[in-house]
């Protein structure tokens, strides 16, 4: 790749790193602040967590439609990223979980504009033959940052929420500036909408089927999304907050590192078979996490994260070949976020069901995902010829 194109892609990968540090530092801080300081119920924590993904779901689609009206609007995504720096400063001022949920809605709206645009640009600017792997590297750097962000939270826990949010704000501003520079370098390659021609680039998989699998997978792995994960692991295993954050960070890091090989196989072997593999792992993950022992809980979290992080670059590669690629990538982000909202709310409502005691102790809230797991396996099998 020529130097200008390579520099733009590398800057976007860097933005995934800095932006995720900002987000991941804030997530456990807000989770434990809402649960322990504001005394919110688990359902309230779920609403806080899922309000973010609900807002992100709608703004992701809106961002894709907006980008089709002119590629110069891609810079709005960078401005939205910097807007997060102001939003997180409001969290220390809250006194109820409902106020926290309102700020989470604002964060979700801003993130829904910024991240899907970045994913679209990196996918469309990368040559097709290496697209899944480059996109996987983009997400992998986000996962490295997720691990580091959890460590930053653990080491700054005594500073208090207000000072932690200042660190988060600094990284949000830096990320927005990096995005601006990247979009300027890649501007000529940004093509949100192309004419549909018989000899044009076509998706290797049916886009509608990809969206269905993305939706089912997002519902199932919602228990690994946001604040509810930290609270569930800490309470289910009786684990202290800092240790919970670092172990969840390591699970995400290892899952992302291994997901690169899934993307490599999708590029050089079979996208269909990798979709099946990730579907099976995602379907199994809540059933393992329901067993209240440390090995099974973390194995379930690992499988959910590995499946989701492996599927993301594959789905972006497929949808980047669609003639309305910006809307397609914004759409899959929207579908996944809306589905994550539904899955998170299901977990929050079902959490009050308690546990099933026998040879092992099972969390009934996670067993509630079984019908969706079965549906995902059926859809995954249908993708293989």
TrEMBL record:
All copies of the Major facilitator superfamily (MFS) profile domain together span 8-385
**UniProt-listed PROSITE patterns:** MFS (PS50850)
Q: Which GO terms describe its cellular component?
A: plasma membrane
Which of UniProt's keywords are assigned here?
A: Cell membrane, Membrane, Transmembrane, Transmembrane helix, Transport
Q: Which Gene3D superfamilies match?
A: MFS general substrate transporter like domains
Membrane spanning stretches: 46-66, 73-93, 105-124, 136-154, 166-186, 210-233, 245-262, 297-315, 327-350, 356-378
**Where does the protein end up?**
Cell membrane
The terms under GO molecular function for this entry are: transmembrane transporter activity
Which InterPro entries has this protein been placed in? Answer: MFS, MFS_dom, MFS_trans_sf, MFS_Transporters
Topology in the lipid bilayer is annotated as:
Multi-pass membrane protein
One family name in Pfam for this protein: MFS_1
Q: By what name is this protein known?
A: MFS transporter
Q: What is the lineage of its organism?
A: Archaea, Methanobacteriati, Methanobacteriota, Thermococci, Thermococcales
